[in-house]
TrEMBL record:
Residues 1-23 form the signal peptide. InterPro entries: Peptide/Ni-bd, SBP_5, SBP_5_dom, TAT_signal. PROSITE patterns: TAT. Its main location: periplasm. It comes from Rhodopseudomonas telluris. It is found in: Periplasm. CDD domains: PBP2_NikA_DppA_OppA_like_7. This is ABC transporter substrate-binding protein. It comes from the Bacteria. Belongs to the bacterial solute-binding protein 5 family. Pfam families: SBP_bac_5. Residues 92-455 form the Solute-binding protein family domain. Keywords: Signal, Transport.
Length: 539
């Protein structure tokens, strides 16, 4: 679509500033405008189903708004007064009542809950959906295992409107894990009608169609171009949203997205370069929210299974060669918390994230390269997700320039956003930048995902350390049993080991930056870093 045509279309859908004369302005049109939200972003979903193979981060946004879960989080006031999910407090979404016992939790469903085609939501649908999440493999199944939810036998139908979840063991992550995006409830009969012998879970159907009971449903999706969602007026998972229609457009050029916002032709955007966010904050034409991403780290990862990054001295050399402050200043424009440069005598804390003691030291980096046997350096590739090019590309250029000074000659590899997760999961890229944010805001959860040698798809470095595994596993047991002393010791232990072995180099804790028109309110921060249209209001 040409920019001119896009602007015409966007204006027709969401802008009132371009209306030429009061004669055509009516109360009905004002209402329609206030009930529609036009979102512009760099990239869009590659799959509408969180259970799908390789579903990307924008796909999470669709799932969150179009599907319900048994429970969700209560909200609290966060930094700057922004509503922020409370990681320790839960309430029902599809569940009308929740009883947590010693080794099980029982959920009574809302009897008036229906799927978007009018079919009642039953315990049968809940069990089928949870069975699906622990059985499809890949990211969904590993996410469920993070809360010790691994077997279909754990999900028991008590009656048509009651489900029990049996615990395999005491695990403080089990209940929080039921509130993330993955354990969504799917219209089982509808999906089964569209399943095949080769695709028993109907993943091909739900890739293209939403089949939930959530507040919105997708009525049109053109991959890479546009997603249109309409409100489900029969939603009972919470207060009926004020926004009736969401038009989500993919606009690859950051300059065009900013122009649409500043002209009033778009309502909300994210994934802009931090320079734009910093300037828009200063200019004050639109509102900009900036919040540190909970349990999140932008990092430089190295494949430790293959030379040369299987050499610890090479990895340490890279850690000393990274141009940390340049990245904070020139790429992030200060909108990030540094994860480097801790004082040499600073004690490790029982928290995550926390900064490493690495700093840019080219002399030390060159010495380590020589010790590793690579005094003349080597050639490699440095990969990044093109779906988030606004940050990734300038960051990779700075890293490429800095590593070249110690002989590491990098060819930059730009991977399309729709393919990024698939390529990352192959665990073959030698050097890459990526972001990981743990949905459950606990140190052991982050490390379970990123450093455990199990089948985690986010241990993209191929890192395998029995000592690390032991510390992570022990910390989870200690957390579940309330053994604070052991827990504290384990957390300090696995943080120290991660910084010593350095399979990935933490760069910074990024901020979630969202720019919106001044008449848009109700933005809430969620662990998944995506928009929740259900609470948003447009004046």
């Amino acid at each position: 679509m040409k920019r001119r045509d896009f602007l015409k279309s966007a204006t027709a859908l969401a802008a009132g500033a371009m209306v030429p004369a009061p004669a055509i302005w009516s109360a009905a049109k004002a209402d329609a405008r206030s009930e529609s939200l036009l979102v512009v972003s760099e990239s869009g979903p590659n799959n509408l189903d969180i259970h799908g193979v390789g579903t990307n981060v924008p796909g999470y946004e669709v799932s969150w708004n179009c599907y319900d879960r048994l429970i969700t989080h209560e909200m609290k006031e966060g930094p700057g007064g922004v509503p922020y999910y409370d990681k320790d407090k839960f309430k029902g979404e599809l569940a009308d009542d929740m009883t947590i016992g010693d080794m099980s939790a029982t959920f009574k469903l809302k009897k008036n809950a229906t799927f978007q085609d009018g079919t009642p939501v039953t315990a049968k649908d809940v069990k089928w959906s949870l069975d699906r999440s622990v059985s499809v493999g890949g990211f969904p199944t590993f996410q469920m295992s993070a809360g010790s939810l691994t077997k279909p036998e754990q999900f028991v139908i008590v009656d048509d409107h009651t489900v029990r979840v049996d615990f395999l063991k005491k695990d403080r992550l089990t209940i929080p894990d039921l509130a993330v995006i993955v354990p969504c409830v799917v219209n089982s009969e509808l999906v089964k009608k569209n399943a095949t012998e080769k695709d028993p879970w109907g993943l091909e159907y739900t890739k293209q169609n939403t089949a939930g009971s959530g507040a919105y449903r997708v009525v049109k999706w053109t991959a890479g171009t546009e997603v249109i969602m309409e409100r489900n007026d029969k939603w009972v998972g919470g207060p009926l949203p004020k926004i009736k229609r969401v038009i989500w457009r993919m606009v690859p050029q950051a300059g065009n997205r900013r122009a649409l916002l500043e002209r009033g032709d778009a309502d909300i955007s994210y994934e802009l370069p931090n320079q734009d966010f910093a300037e828009m904050k200063r200019d004050g034409k639109v509102n900009v929210v900036s919040l540190p991403i909970s349990n999140g780290i932008q990092y430089l990862g190295m494949n430790v299974t293959q030379p040369p990054f299987n050499n610890p001295k090479v990895r340490e050399a890279v850690a000393y060669a990274v141009p940390y402050q340049k990245i904070i200043d020139a790429v992030m424009f200060g909108l990030a918390n540094p994860m480097f440069g801790a004082a040499a005598d600073k004690a490790t804390e029982v928290k995550w994230p926390q900064p490493t003691k690495y700093n840019t030291d080219m002399a030390k980096a060159k010495a380590l390269m020589a010790e590793a046997g690579y005094a003349n350096g080597f050639d490699t590739t440095l990969s990044f997700d093109l779906g988030f090019a606004g940050v990734n590309e300038p960051m990779c250029i700075l890293i490429q320039e800095s590593l070249a000074q110690i002989g590491i000659r990098c060819t930059i590899n730009k991977i399309p956003g729709a393919n990024w997760r698939t390529e990352l999961n192959k665990k073959v890229m030698p050097l890459y930048v990526n972001i990981f944010s743990g949905w459950l805001d606990y140190p052991e959860y982050f490390f379970y995902w990123c450093y455990h040698s199990g089948k985690s798809i986010f241990n993209t470095m191929g890192y395998d350390s029995p000592e690390m595994d032991k510390l992570i596993d022990s910390s989870r047991i200690a957390a579940a049993t309330g053994d604070t002393a052991t827990y504290d010791s384990d957390v300090k232990g696995f943080v120290d080991l991660a910084f010593t072995d350095i399979p990935r180099v933490p760069l910074y804790q990024p901020y979630l930056n969202v720019a919106m028109q001044k008449n848009v309110s109700g933005f809430a921060y969620w662990f998944h870093r995506r928009l929740d249209y259900r609470t948003m209001v447009k004046g």
